[in-house]
Amino acid sequence: MGGRGQLAGGLMFLFAAAAAPLLPDWVVSLVTIAFANALVVLGLVVLWRAGLVSFGQALYYCIGAYAVSLTARWTGFTDAFALVLIGGVAAGLMAVLIGFLLARYREIFFAMLSLALSMILYGVLVKSESLGSTDGFSVATPTFLGYAPHRDALGLALYWLTLGVDAIGAVLVGVYFRSVAGALAAPIRDNEIRVEFLGVSVTSIIHIKVVVAGILGGLGGALAALAIGHVDPNMAYWTTSGGFVFVTILAGAGSVAAAFVGSLVFEAVRSFAFDVMPQLWQMTLGSVLLLTILFLPDGLGSLVARLKRRREAKS
Amino acid sequence: MSAILVVRDLEKTFGSLVAARDITISVPAEQTVGVIGANGAGKTTFINMITGHLKPSKGSIWFEDREITGKPSREITRLGISRSFQVAQIFPSLTVFENICMAAAIARRAGGVWGNIASPVHSGAATAEAEATIELFQIGRYRDTAANTLPQGVRKLLDIGMAVVGWPRLLLLDEPTSGISIEEKFDLMNVVMSALKARKITVLFVEHDMEIVARFAERVLAFYDGTIIADGTPTETLDDPRVQELISGVRLKPTAARPGHA
Questions:
Q1: For B113, which residue in chain A has the nearest alpha carbon?
Q2: CB–CB of B119 and A179 under 8 A?
Q3: Phi/psi class of residue B167: alpha, beta or left (left: φ > 0; alpha: ψ in -120 to 50)?
Q4: Is residue B223 scored above 90 in pLDDT?
Q5: Which tens digit of pLDDT belongs to each residue from B58-109?
Q6: Which superfamily does B82-167 belong to?
Q7: Among A45, A57, B38, B240, which is most exposed with the fewest C-beta within 10 angstroms?
Q8: Which chain B residues touch A if contact means CB-CB below 8 Å?
Q9: Pair B184, B258: CB distance under 8 Å
Q10: CATH architecture under which domain B1-80+169-175+202-246 falls
């Protein structure tokens, strides 16, 4: 994404932030969840560019969420900014550990191993009576540097918090994509031998990717926990991971912005589908994905590139 | 001139198989050395030991008066030894410029994990280095072409360019002309060798075509059965009766210019 793309993205974020008080509550909460999940998707995009698919990204999502809710529960500490940071750090630390194992695998082995690890967490949480077992438990109402909003004001505050974390995340991931570690994605997918011969450890580059994706997953989970107000083991279940992969395919890995657009479209389609035909919403989602794969194999994000190319061809 | 590469009593065995033995040579800086020998004579084993991809069973390797025997290949690359490949190793989905710029950025990055994260790919220095290398190898018209659509000769040049962009002092070329048609071989080698001369790089190149060896090497090493059987100027080595019997099979005079029939 060039300088103009960043400017457009920044303006979009500012517009979304400014428009919030005018939006109905349900839109605010839908966008909050969509943009919290978008961070997890952004993490998957980081891996996807190197040809890696994680079917266990819900692991970090769940760790982020539980880190937030447990910190609030055990210490009574409720500052949203710090809690989100704790969620990201907790998931990041887990990713550092898991990375030592995961970075040695590729393709289906990478996918299955990450799935297995997330299911271990699910199993542990389900068996943990003290953490509410399958029911989970509710998250304390967050405060914002001493400010303690309620109801609608809380929803708005969380919306802005999510937008802020997303904006910072998007900028940092953009910087990362332009660094050696971030740009070594397609080259790793293309030709690992050459990367090694240029003097770079592919394992260490993939380890970094796992950690970046883990931190993003944790931040997403932390924001989601605050927005939903409840955590349960399903946040680590494989269908949750599958949902994120679904959105990644829908969005495409072409740009940072694609993750946000894709996540928003996914949540919107899901809500409308559920509203219009409660029995068949999954089928609607499936059809949307199928059409995307058929007509936009590089995801929704490739629409922008396509339009640009068409404009260039005309001029 | 001081020696940039010194190899002493190098030996490599795989179980009972001796892949290389008694290799002792000294290469002065900026020399262009041709390496000949039949398949399985130990040429690639020799190169792989210098680049750190095979650990020698015995002997030592010194680069710029520093012992590098058995060091990991990534470390050796950082010290200034690069290599190119018999089959071009490039990033097919990237353009020529992105391929070289990536290699330039990697060569210029700071060390450690943080160096990978903190070094931008398109820094001014890396971009300038990439442009200069593209010009040096005369592949400017392919600058924005995806590497997977390149003609074979350009792929080779790109592969060597990626090895050169980090300013190595020693370059090992493994069969730079393999897969290239006879008509194109001399042009390709002309571009490669003048580029390497311009950068004052010491070169060891493995080659099967004796005309190419005679034309471009200042010194020729002949490998047979894991060891060096002849080491001298192209004329000396190619005139050696054992080399003619075991490797080249024909008598060939080194030619100063491109042969008329080509």
A1: A204
A2: yes
A3: left
A4: no
A5: 888 888 888 888 888 888 888 889 888 888 888 998 999 989 999 888 888 8
A6: P-loop containing nucleotide triphosphate hydrolases (3.40.50.300)
A7: B38
A8: 73-74, 77-78, 83, 85, 89-94, 102-103, 105-107, 109, 113, 115-122, 162, 166
A9: no
A10: 3-Layer(aba) Sandwich (3.40)
